[in-house]
Structure formats: C-alpha cells, structure tokens
Write a structure and sequence with these properties.
Blueprint lengths: L1 H17 L5 H4 L11 E7 L2 E9 L3 E7 L2 E9 L5 E7 L2 E9 L3
Antiparallel strand pairs: 1-2, 2-3, 3-4, 4-5, 5-6
C-alpha cells in the first residue's frame, strides 16, 4: 500500500515538473516582435504565439496574439514604464486604447 502511494507521488511530481503532454509546437512557440520575444506563456498555433498569452522580453505584452504578433485586445508595457492598453493589429497599436506614462 505504501509503495503505491509513493509511486503515485513520484508520477505526479514528474508530470508537474516535466509535463510530457506538451506538444513540441507549444514548447517551440515563437513571438515575432523582438522587444517581447524572450519568454512566452500561452496559446500556440503552428509554432507561433496565437490566442491569448503573455510575452516577456525587454518589454512585456499580455493579451491576444495572432501569427506571433500582438493582435486584438492587449496590454503592452515598455521598459520605461509606459503602457498602452487597447487594440493591436499585426504588432502595431490600432483603434482605441489607453496610453499612460510615468511622470
């Protein structure tokens, strides 16, 4: 009985740490905008950030992405502290949004 519990714990830890169920595409997911291309957590499609996610590089972006670029509703924070929270299209600010900066 004790060996079975120990085996279950070991398997659970393995799944949490290594997550063998991730596909290769998720592990190789790319963000095409250089300023936010360091680390990415989120949805992928064909090896590119696609869906909802968070990209962290020199700057940070959290929101919707399409084909590796910010696209849709999202919040971009520059390393200077400036923030644009609004609409994005193909990696560029587009449409409505709020822009703020540090004084």
């Amino acid at each position: 009985m004790c060996k079975i519990k120990l085996l279950k714990i070991v398997i659970l830890l393995y799944v949490i740490i290594f997550n063998p169920f991730k596909t290769n595409a998720q592990q190789q997911c790319k963000v095409l905008l250089h300023e936010i291309s360091g680390k990415y957590e989120g949805d992928c499609k064909k090896g590119l950030a696609h869906g909802v996610g968070k990209a962290i590089g020199r700057d940070t972006y959290e929101g919707e992405l399409k084909k590796g670029l910010p696209h849709g509703k999202g919040k971009y924070t520059w390393k200077t502290g400036e923030v644009h929270d609004g609409e994005w299209e193909k990696g560029n600010r587009e449409g409505y949004g709020e822009y703020s900066f540090k004084a």
